[in-house]
Amino acid sequence: MLKKRIIPKLLIKHRALGAVTRPVLVTTRGYRDIREVGDPVSQAKIYEAHLADELIVLNIDGTGLAGDETMLGLIERLATETFMPLAVGGGVRSCDDFGMLLARGADKITINRAAVENPALIAEAAKRYGAQCVVVSIDYRTIDGRPEVFVGHAAEPTGLDVLDFARRVHDLGAGEIVLTSADRDGGGSGIDLVVLRAVADAVPIPVIASGGCGLASHFTDAFLEGRAEGVAAGTFFCFRDQNPMQARAHIRNAGIPIRMEV
Amino acid sequence: MTFSDRLVGIVDYRAGNIHSIENAFETLGARVTFVRQEADIASVTHLVLPGVGAFGHCAEKLQATGLVAPLHRAVFDERRPLLGICVGMQLLADHGEEAGGHDGLGWLGGTVRAMTAPTPAIRIPHVGWNDVRFEEDFGGFSVGDAPDFYFDHSFAYREPRDGRVIGSCDHGGRFAAIVGAGNVVAVQFHPEKSQSSGMRFLTGFLAM
């Protein structure tokens, strides 16, 4: 039986130190309030030891990928120093960007703004790299009771309804959706189960829930009530004295299929 | 077991993540080289055919390398072990249905078909960790073992005409997760991404 996934999320910023630019791991709250946490590669190795099922790695500086050795070099190091599946995104605009990241060790590519502004990219990338490679990351805020798609670190409204947009990206060939409530990001108050369930019921592809995990029970809620295939979390694993192994035991005890041993 | 006498040739036809595979074999103590032209095959003891992407795209790229005939000789005349991974497995079929249908290499026969979901709880693509039930002993695994491996695919190999199903997996129906035929073994999952169960599997391949 396919297991539910626990997915640590590594948010990356570029930090210039003298002549060298290094990738640093950060967390955010409400997509703002950026806090530097440390070195992404060492953190990834810790997550691997804790049986993380996958990693999401996102460049949040809003810069393009071409020539960005800081980000591309990081992906290559993660791919050679850990044996975990990597979903990579941030600044992906074209099929060539997909190819560049895949060549450096990414397994799946996540797109966010490009899915809104250039939806044809979804179909083009799915044709070349397969649907399983194309992950659309949907950020939303709930305005007057209606979940609306946002881009640009969830600062720019698009006017798009989350459910309509989710159906559309699936129709275009996306293989997976990462759904993030920007209102709940980094707050630890729990996953937005209403929107998660609505999206998971609207599309037949896997939906990964993100934004708001503060307790191990929030993972269980997302799997059972929200019908998520996976839960992604950043802040939860960085600051809360929690690791994927502890969350896993709680989830297993709730009767949810999850990987326990290597 | 030491594998310093193994030289693994990973076929590099620009369709997939070859560095993760390279690193996995090096971690196991084998040497690794990339096969980009016929001359690169000469000294390798083991061959790996990777593949990430759409079946047709990968098939075209592989044919364009001109490596198909030399690889066939190395595998079927010289009997060097070959490991196909993901689309590298699927390409061993006669035909793949993805994106209108394309011909594969036909080395193990059969067809690669779209996976289907009998209930809404089964989501396609099949992404994540799923248990593979061993139907035969392979490497360090025995019949009945069911370790988890990492999968990421929408199409599956159900009837490999000229191969045996060494391991099967269930996602809306059972499909061939590991196929073997003589010195050829092919897997739908990603051993190079499957942490310790993947490393155990690759150890079994290096022991061939």
Write the layout of secondary structure elements.
The complex is a heterodimer of chains A (262) and B (208).
Chain A: E1 5-17, E2 20-29, E3 32-38, H1 40-49, E4 55-59, H2 69-81, E5 86-89, H3 95-103, E6 108-111, H4 113-117, H5 120-129, E7 134-143, E8 146-151, E9 156-161, H6 162-172, E10 176-181, H7 193-202, E11 207-210, H8 216-224, E12 230-233, H9 235-239, H10 244-253
Parallel strand pairs in A: 1-4, 1-12, 4-5, 5-6, 6-7, 7-10, 10-11, 11-12
Antiparallel strand pairs in A: 1-2, 2-3, 7-8, 8-9
Helix pairs in contact in A: 1-2, 6-7, 8-10
Chain B: E1 7-11, H1 18-27, E2 31-35, E3 46-49, H2 55-65, H3 68-77, E4 82-85, H4 87-90, E5 95-96, E6 102-103, E7 111-114, E8 126-131, E9 133-134, E10 148-153, E11 155-157, E12 164-170, E13 174-181, E14 184-187, H5 195-206
Parallel strand pairs in B: 1-2, 1-3, 3-4, 4-14, 5-7
Antiparallel strand pairs in B: 5-6, 7-11, 8-10, 9-12, 12-13, 13-14
**CATH classification class of chain B:** Alpha Beta
Radius of gyration of chain B: 16 Å
Low-confidence stretches of chain A: none
- Tell me what the CATH architecture of chain A is: Alpha-Beta Barrel
Tell me the total number of β-strands of chain A: 12
Largest beta sheet of chain B, briefly? 8 strands, mixed
Contiguous helical run count of chain B: 5
Give the strand content of chain A.
Answer: 25-35%
How many domain units of chain A? 1
Name the pair of protein chains with the most residues at their interface, and give those residue counts.
A-B, 42 and 45 residues
Q: Assign a percent range to the helix content of chain A.
A: 25-40%
What's the total number of strands of chain B? 14
Helix and strand run of chain A: EEEHEHEHEHHEEEHEHEHEHH
At the first level of CATH, the class of chain A is Alpha Beta
The number of helical elements of chain A comes to 10
Bulk shape of chain B: globular
* CATH architecture field of chain B: 3-Layer(aba) Sandwich
